[in-house]
Amino acid sequence: MSVVPLHSNNAFHQDPKFGRLLLLSLIVHVVVWAVFTGGWFGVSQRPKPPVYYVDLIHKPVLNPQAGRPEPRPASKPKPEPVKSAAVTPSAPKEPAKPVAKIPPKPPEVVVPKPTPKPEPKPAAKPVPKPAAEPDRRTEQKLQNALDEIRERQKHEAERDALKERLAKLSESVNAAATVPADVPVGMPDGQGNEVGVSALAFVQAFIQQNWVLSPYLLDQSRIANIEAKATLAYSASGKLVRFRINSPSGNQQFDDSLKRAITKSDQLPQGLPKDLELVVTFNLKDIAAARR
Amino acid sequence: MFVRWIVLLVACCALPWSVRAATEIEISAPGEQSIPLALTQFLPDQGPQSARVAAEINEVLNADLDLSGLFRFVDPAAFLDDAGRISLLSNQVNFPQWRMLGAETLIKGSYSLTGEQLVVEARLFDIVNRRLLTGRRYVGEVKDVRRMAHAFADLVLKALTGEEGPFSSRIAYISNQTGHPELWLMDVDGKRPIRLTDHRSIVLNPDFSPRGKEILFTSYRANNPDLYRKEIYSGKEARLSYRPGLNVAGRMAPNEREIALTLSKDGNPEIYLVDISGRVLKRITDNWGIDSDPSWSPDGSRMAFVSNRQGNPHIFIADIFTGKAERLTTQGKYNATPAWNPKGDRIAFTRQEGGRFDIYTIKTDGTDERRLTFGPGNSEHPRWSPDSRFIVYSSDKSGNRAIYVMRADGTGARRLTTLESDSRHPAWSTRW
C-alpha cells in the first residue's frame, strides 16, 4: 500500500503559476507595508534625551510641541487691589529692587582686598636682604610669613573665582526659571504638535522619583561603572503590566533598589497616550560625575 | 514549504517592529539617596514593661543607623496603629499603612523581661516587597541591652549593604579623667566607658591587636616611654619593650606574630620589627631622618610611616621584605599619623596647614587626596572602623580635646566623649 501525502492533491501544487503569483503578491504587499510603516529599515534609535523638565501635571503625549512643562506663572497684579496700596505696598517694593541690584556691589567691596595684598610684598622684600646676613632665622620667619600671605592670596583668589561662578550659575538658573506668560506648554526639545509633556520623560521622572539608593550602600569604587537594564511595559491606563531585569548589575543592593523602584512605579499618576514598552538603563553616572 | 516561507517572511518583517517597540531611557541617579526607615518603639511581649529598655534600644538603633548615613527616619509622630502592635511576621505587618507614610524599610521588635533576664526580638522588613529582610532573638541580661541593639544595627547594615556594620566593636582612647592620661575603652557611641590602666603616669598611643583581644600602648610608668601589652578580658599586662629612649607607636602585624614600633635606642628614631616577646627581628628603616608612626597594610606586606628624610615630615610606604620606601604625600609641609584602612585602598593622615591640623585621606598610589575636616580647632589621630566606613579621631574644636567619629567622606561628624576631660589617641577595634 502506498501512502500519498495529503497535500499532493493540493491545488497550489497542481498549478505552480498560481502559487508563484500568490508568493509574489505577498512579497510585494509585505515590502510596501514595511516601506510605508518604516519597520523594514528599522527606526534609528532615539537619541538619549538631554534634560527633561516634567512636573507630572500636564498630560503626557507622544509628540509634545516646543515649549516648557512648568505651570504658567501666576499673574503679578495681585498687590494692586490692596486699599493702602499708595502707602505700604509701594514702600517695600522700592527697597526690594535695589536689594536685587546689590550683588554687583560685593565684587567692588572685594576689590580693596587685593590692594592690601601688595603691601606686604614690598614690606617683605626689603627685610630679607638686611636680615639675610645677620640672622637666618629672621629670613626663615619672613619666608614663612610670605608663604602664608601667598597661601592666603591663593585661597582668596579661589574663593573669588568660586563666588563668580556661583553668581553666574545662579543667574543662569534664575533666567531659566523665569517663564514668560505666553510660553506654550510642551518640552524644550519638542518638535510635535501636541500640548503636553513627553510621555517618556513623564515615565522616566516618575520611576526616578521612586528610586531610592544610598551611595553608601555600594563599594565606592564601583559607583562609576555599575549599571542594570530592565524592560517595563505600561498599558495606556498607566498600569505596569510586566517587567523584567534584563541585565542585573551583579550588586544585590543595587538590583534590590531597582526592584523596589519598579514595584513602587506600578501605577503611573496619569494615563499614557498608548501602551508603552521601555528598556530602562539604571546607573549612577550623575553621582560619579558629581564626586569628581 | 510554501507556508514556511510565508511565516519566515512575516517574522522578518515583524522583527524590526518588535525591536522598535521598546524605547530606551536612562536614569543616571536615584531620586532619593537615603532609605526612608520607620523605626518603631520596641514593645513589651511578656513580663513587666520597661520604658528604659525600650528607650535604650531605640536610642542605640537611632544613633547607629543615623551615623551610617543610609537612612532618613520617618517621623514617629506620623505612625499609625500598626506601630502599636507586636507583629514580627511579615503576614502580620500592615505594609500598606507603612507605605502610605513613605517608608521603605521598617524595624519592629519586642522584649520580654524576667527578673534580670532580657529577651529581645528584632525584625527588619522590606515594606515595598512585603518581606522580612532579617531578624534576630537576643537573650541576655538587662545590662546587655545596648550591646543587643548595637548587634542588631550591625545586622541591619549587613542586610541592606551586604557588609556588617562596626557598631559592636569598641574604641580605646586616652583620657585624663582621673587626673592622669590613662587607657580607656568605650562603645562606638561613646557610652559605657571603662578604665583599663591605673599607671598614674602618662599613657599614650594605644592600638588593638588584629583580633581585638589585646591592646598595645606606651606608658611612662617606669619613667621611660616603654611599650606595654594588655589582655582586655583578663586584664593581664606586660612590659614588652623597654629599651633606652623611645619605645612608641607599637602596631601589631595582621598575623599577630610581629610588632612594628619606633625605637630610638641608637639615638635616631627608626622603625623596627619585634616579636611578641619584644625581641628585635628586623630593622625596617635606616635613615638619618626621624621615622615613626608605622601602620600596616591589611595584607601585612607594606607599611605606611612618617619620615622627615626629605626635609618636612611626609608619609612614606615601605615594603616590609625589601625595606624600600616610597613617598606617598607630596602636598603640605607636615603630614603625620598615617592609618591604613582595613579595605586597603586608602590611608588617612593628619596635615598641619596654617597652624592647624586637619584630617585627610589619600589612595595608596598617592592620588585622590581628600580633606575631611574643616573649621576651627585641630583634628588629629585618625583611625578607621573595621568596615572602613567611618573614621574616629580627636579634636579640640569645641574646647577640650575630645573623641569624634565621622563617615569616611567627612560627613556626619559627632562627638563621643565629654568635654570635661581631655581625650585623645583613639583606636578602633575589630568586631567583637
Describe the protein in words:
- The complex is a heterodimer of chains A (292) and B (432).
- With 292 residues, chain A is mainly alpha-helical.
- Chain A has a domain at 85-177.
- Chain A has helices at 11-14, 16-37, 90-101, 105-110, 120-124, 128-132, 136-177, 199-210, 252-264, 285-291; strands spanning 60-61, 197-198, 227-234, 240-247, 276-283.
- In chain A, the strands form two sheets. Chain A has a three-stranded antiparallel beta sheet, covered by helices on one side.
- The longest helix of chain A is centred in the middle third of the chain and has 42 residues, at 136-177.
- The model of chain A is unreliable at 1-12 and 75-133 (pLDDT under 50).
- Chain B is mostly beta strands and 432 residues long.
- Chain B has two domains: 35-161, TolB, N-terminal domain (Rossmann fold), CATH 3.40.50; 170-428, Neuraminidase.
- Helix content of chain B is 14%, strand content 41%.
- Chain B contains four helices and 31 strands.
- Chain B has helices spanning 2-21, 51-68, 95-100, 145-161, and strands at 22-27, 35-39, 43-44, 71-73, 105-114, 117-126, 131-141, 170-175, 182-187, 194-195, 203-208, 214-219, 226-231, 237-241, 247-252, 258-263, 270-275, 280-283, 291-296, 302-307, 314-319, 325-327, 335-340, 346-353, 356-363, 370-371, 379-384, 390-395, 402-407, 414-415, 423-428.
- In chain B, strands 2, 3, 4, 5, 6 and 7 form a six-stranded mixed beta sheet that branches. Chain B has a four-stranded antiparallel beta sheet with strand order 10-9-8-31, with no helix packed on it. A four-stranded antiparallel beta sheet of chain B has the order 11-12-13-14, with no helix packed on it.
- In chain B, α2 (51-68) packs parallel to α4 (145-161).
- The longest helix of chain B is centred in the first third of the chain and has 20 residues, at 2-21.
- Chain B is globular and about 85 Å long.
- The termini of chain B are far apart.
- Mean pLDDT of chain B is 92; it is low at 16-20.
- The interface between A and B is large, with 58 and 42 residues.
- β5 (276-283) of chain A pairs parallel with β1 (22-27) of chain B, so a sheet runs across the interface.
